[in-house]
Design goal:
It is a single chain. This protein has 200 residues and is of the alpha+beta class. 33% of the residues lie in helices and 9% in strands. It has helices at residues 2-6, 17-20, 29-33, 37-42, 76-80, 82-90, 94-106, 125-136, 150-156; strands at residues 111-115, 118-122, 140-141, 144-145, 178-179, 188-189. The strands form 3 sheets. It has a two-stranded antiparallel ribbon. Strands 3-4 form a two-stranded antiparallel sheet. A two-stranded antiparallel ribbon has the order 5-6. A hairpin with a 2-residue loop joins β3 and β4.
Length: 200
């Protein structure tokens, strides 16, 4: 998503319906129009995460619960639909875009594979370590700036909204004053992982 934004294909403040069309949820048109890409990457879509299947990405499963941006809930379906957002924005299939923009420059292997409603990235521990090093080096791989949108990078690895301080853009954060967990609306005081480094 960050690379697609830095290349001008999308803006995370765009409405999701700009890329998935209207009717991708069962919300009213006004409720659906409030949901942005930013809501998808911050887990603040407002869609009901306690449905029969929180992985289900069909419109009948995506039900309004709160206005977008007013409620944090870890919900697989809205972030899985980012696949379609990226593909429709770039005109490139997700595996091809990932290969060109991330895998080839870093030497990673792996691919996205549809498993029921999920689109899972299958890879190796060594490749995921490469991804970790890419992020640790702020989007730079051996002098090759892959992530040049420094604002996106900074927002990704820092608190992205005020509801769950321990969540960035699809990124869990440690060392914050409080945290929330999936399937709960309770805000716990303290760090997500007290025995781990604050910058984890």
């Amino acid at each position: 998503v960050g690379i697609a934004q830095q290349e001008g294909y999308l803006d995370i403040n765009d409405k999701t319906s700009d890329y998935l069309g209207t009717g991708w949820t069962s919300c009213t048109q006004q409720q659906e129009a409030q949901i942005t890409i930013r809501n998808q990457i911050t887990m603040t879509s407002g869609l009901d995460d306690a449905g029969v299947d929180p992985y289900c990405t069909t419109d009948t499963c995506l039900v309004y619960l709160a206005d977008a941006g007013t409620r944090w809930a870890y919900h697989n379906a809205p972030y899985t639909l980012l696949d379609g957002v990226i593909e429709n924005a770039t005109g490139t299939m997700l595996n091809n875009y990932t290969a060109t923009k991330v895998k080839s420059p870093t030497g990673m292997d792996g691919f996205y594979f549809q498993s029921d409603f999920n689109n899972v990235f299958y890879s190796t521990a060594r490749s995921m370590a490469r991804f970790g090093l890419l992020i640790l080096n702020k989007g730079n791989w051996n002098g090759n700036a892959i992530m040049t949108d420094t604002n996106y990078y900074h927002e990704m690895v820092n608190t992205s909204q005020e509801i769950n301080k321990s969540y960035g853009y699809l990124w869990w954060l440690n060392g914050k004053e409080s945290f929330m967990m999936p399937q709960s609306q309770f805000v716990f005081p303290g760090k997500l992982c007290p025995n781990a480094p604050d910058d984890m």
